[in-house]
Amino acid sequence: MSGIIGKKVGMTSIFSADGRNVACTLIEAGPCVVTQVKNVETDGYNAVQLAFGERKEKNTPKPLIGHFKKAGTTPKQKVVEFRDFRVEFEGQVELGKSVIADEVFVEGDFVDAIGTSKGKGFQGVVKRHGFAGVGGQTHGQHNRQRHPGSIGACSWPSRVFKGMRMAGRTGGDRVKVVNLKVLKIYPEKNLLLVSGSVPGPKNSFVILEK
């Protein structure tokens, strides 16, 4: 597979061999269950569907219950499809098989982490876009230092351009952080220690890709 599903445990720091203090994130990666295998003949492309995290059957839609029973597993919380998995795994994945972190990654690998960033609600331009605020009374401002100021002309274009940086709902977006190094693997606990920060709060789902 090209990746695995995990859950963010939290952040910590370790000392590297040269004495540097490295910020890192602990992720509970797996065990995941293969719930579907797609191939070129039937689906037009190669892919493996993995599921992670236990879910109560009474809170699971009936079509999903049947889908999981076909794979011989209990209902899961998170289902992710990994397309175009690596050639060396072709033929080794089968329905209902358990996938663990040390089967996919080795220490020293560089991975991409995909998660949902923390939602911060409706925010102004200073917090949302890093505006410095209006120190002097310019740009059409008066006595409102954290407001954006003038946003356009009058007769032309007579509208606000798309993509204008303004106030709005902040966070809660799908975010991808690339090139995080796998510093340590704890196979007995299905834990990965990766360098840097990972999007989302504690206990949120994270997708790790090679």
UniProtKB/TrEMBL annotation:
Record key words, sorted: Ribonucleoprotein, Ribosomal protein, RNA-binding, rRNA-binding
Keyword DNA repair listed: no
Pfam families for the chain: Ribosomal_L3
InterPro entries, A to Z: Ribosomal_uL3, Ribosomal_uL3_bac/org-type, Ribosomal_uL3_CS, Transl_B-barrel_sf
GO cellular component, one term: cytosolic large ribosomal subunit
GO biological process, one term: translation
Keyword Glycosyltransferase included in the entry's annotation: no
GO terms, molecular function: rRNA binding; structural constituent of ribosome
Highest taxon listed in the record's lineage: Bacteria
Family: Belongs to the universal ribosomal protein uL3 family.
NCBIfam families reported for this sequence: L3_bact
Role played: One of the primary rRNA binding proteins, it binds directly near the 3'-end of the 23S rRNA, where it nucleates assembly of the 50S subunit.
Complex formation: Part of the 50S ribosomal subunit. Forms a cluster with proteins L14 and L19.
Protein name: Large ribosomal subunit protein uL3
Organism: Mongoliitalea lutea
Gene: rplC
